[in-house]
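Bench notes, afternoon.
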Amino acid sequence: MPPSSSTVMLGQSPTRRRSAESTRTLLLKAAAHLFARKGVAGITLAEIAGTVGLSGPAIYNHFSSKDALFIAVVQQMYDEEILAFEQALQSLDSVAEGMAVLLDLVPALYRDDGTLQLLGLTAQLEAARNPSVYQVLIDASVRRDRVAISLVERAKERGELAVDVNAAEVGAMLLSLFYGALGYRSLMAPTPEQFRGSVQALRCLLTVMQR
């Protein structure tokens, strides 16, 4: 059985450890791109290794299996996404301001090459097959919702929202709005400019609804 990446890291010198970490970072980036475009079944570990100049077997020094690599890729994607939400919303106490900030943030999150959107869809498909992937998605959803729920709770304290508003439902719905509407549009818009147009369209609709 191939060793886990954590096992390999033990006992290494600082220089070799940094080199291993750099290789792991390159593998995650290459794998994210390939998984997004070919799916998990459509790519092999050897192909992923080859894109960063490794021999096929050498990849097992970093990941024990293709599923382990895919889970690491998906985990990193959600970690980066949630961190971006936290940094954007943590200083706010207004849902209206939060929605405006998220609309500014979304075009930067949905990268021009479409990797994030496609990888998210791939993760959802794999979740039906792999309980470990499903758990990553559930955990990420809970953490992501927690960020929005915290914003709603601060808005209630400020008086922007009524005290009897269900913060959990409103927070979850706030992010679902962006994932549902803009997630879909990001796949349908063939260019970054057109996707930015979709973001502006949602901004206009929200403005009308707030009148």
